[in-house]
Amino acid sequence: MTPPRTATPPAAVQCGIAAFGLAFGEDRDVAATAADYVDNPERVVNWGFRTYHRAPDDVHATGLAHAAAQRALDRLGLAAEDLDLVVVANSDLPEYAYRDGAAALARELGIERTQTLLLTEGCGAGVHGLYYVASTMAMQPEVETALFVAVNRVSEYHRNRMNVFSAVLSDGAAAVVLRRGHGANQWLATEQFTEPEHCDLLRVDFGGTVNPVPPEGWSSREAPGGHESVRRQFGDDPVVLQRFLTNRYARLLEVVDGACRRAGLQRRDIDHLIYLNDSAASIDAVAEPLGVPLSRTNAALAPGHGHMGAADQLVSLAQQLERGEIASGDVVALCGISTDRWSATLVRA
């Protein structure tokens, strides 16, 4: 006999997403603009993305985060001063060095003396960031309402949005307001771990303390892309590369299983999977072993957005809920990878 699902999350705190807010850069057609970024546009078009979002030159991560946050607050009729915690996950370069992006968002919202936290772990931060909200609520009973924003705004000076890996990078933000005891879209559990061996795989080689400025004449349009970095890393050894790719998906399953154990659930309890905005084949490689059909993933939404870094999963969750594709009580597994970090969070709609 199949044991019944756990009625409530066996966690130290119960909190749920009470509202979403989304903000995107301007829509751009992939096929019409690929030649502006790469010399082989057919390769980019073949990835399957139709549209990506490009923010205007004067709109940066804080602006996108603020727009998304304000929309989430407005849906609840909340003022920013009602927030007890503000967490920001920024998966691309910040506007300025030596500045706290979470504090910058708090200033835009017009609040002060509110706890803030900035996450910079890359694409997976939009998944495991929910854990830091829940853990703060568990440790601080006075924290009732929190804002979590995941934002990605590509710096085209540093990175070619169509030549990092097999996805078109995109500008967008997703904000959620979480409230203690909220009965819908409840956080159940989060699992994450790091394997640091390949942490340099997609690094940008200048802009930090090692190489503060690029070589003379350097341009992201002409610089080697992520595929060249992968070849350098694995020395054109197809066996070693295949092992890396296989482990990539195996670790995703491992981290989802870990989140299930924490929530007292099993793979068969997962109704939906939301992964990074990747190709349908890549998403299915994660979903199929979990027993989740492709129709219950973000595969249909991904081509219209591109890869928005840490914002991917929350954007898809918001849109699938709005469309009625996720029913009340369904368990949704959000999962993702940064270069060296695997993350999974379970949410009960």
From TrEMBL:
Residues 260-339 form the Beta-ketoacyl-[acyl-carrier-protein] synthase III C-terminal domain. Gene3D superfamilies: 3.40.47.10. Residues 120-193 form the Beta-ketoacyl-[acyl-carrier-protein] synthase III N-terminal domain. Pfam families: ACP_syn_III, ACP_syn_III_C. The keyword Acyltransferase applies. Signal peptide: none annotated. It comes from the Bacteria. Keywords: Acyltransferase, Cytoplasm, Transferase. This is 3-oxoacyl-ACP synthase. It comes from Streptomyces halobius.
